[in-house]
Amino acid sequence: MDELLQQIEAYRKEVEGYEISNLQQLEEFRIKFLGSKGLTKSLFSEMKNVPSEKKKEFGQVLNEFKQLAEEKFENAKELTTDNKLSAKEDLDLSLPGDAVQIGSRHPVTLVRNRIVSIFQRLGFSVADGPEIEDDWHNFTALNLPQNHPARDMQDTFYIHQNPDWLLRTHTSNVQIREMEKGRLPIRIICPGRVYRNETISARSHCFFHQVEGLYIDENVSFADLKQTLYFFVQEMFGKDVKVRFRPSYFPFTEPSAEMDVSCFICGGKGCRICKQTGWVEILGCGMVHPKVLENCGIDSNKYTGYAFGMGIERPALLLYDINDIRLFSENDARFLRQFGTAT
Ligand SMILES: [Zn+2]
Hints:
single chain, alpha+beta, seven-stranded mixed sheet, two-stranded antiparallel ribbon, 11 helices, binds zinc ion
């Protein structure tokens, strides 16, 4: 026992006198005294040979020694790291830094933001919903019951574990969810990603983006719908743009219409983009079908509303003269970097 205490005393002196002036010496010190095969560790393993009445005293001495070695190590570590820095006296703080690469907004984001900000100025607020949806919110509540032929136009991807789940084919599910909340009036726009089971080509993709709008209140008429959309296209494409409505069919609106704008590339004269017609189809719209209102618990005798929906990729292709929709999702930085100054 006394022998061990003498030994510790000798080590204590060694620690105190140990000179550490660089990182290598610091590491040598650590290995010798504090490492997993170091002296402190081996002294602790001697504990079992110490008679039990002396264990307390020995433990105390040993702990003090360990603390001393650790303190020495920490202090030396701070000093040697500081030294390392001050040794770099050739550091020139006046040199210019490395340029930070500033990214650019994605063209789809640019167009979405433009559409959203126009409707926000008209008092619409942005609503969001899930991309994995159940059959009710994506189809049935929208007057598209099971086996309805209009479902064929919107074939999508189903979730294997639960056939009731699917990837939404439009952002109309957000409209249904808002209407189900029962807080009226409703004036929302729903931007988001949607999915269709379509062959991928230069003109179509299995996922794309939409912005839909919904306004429900008392005495909302088709005239309100026309005026709102007319204001929108003027803000979006310019004051000179003309619009035309063509009768159409959607299960969730009655009456329904497709809206065209005069081609903003050729000004209506006819070009490659508008296929020489002078018109570009831009969105679908209509008065919300009374059955959809009733499905969501809204009194269709008291309330009416309009809804509209448009893709984002299509106007983005036209506005930036892009010829392939796949470019939007290929993450090619050379393509994306071109939009650094676009608005
Ligand atoms: Zn044209």
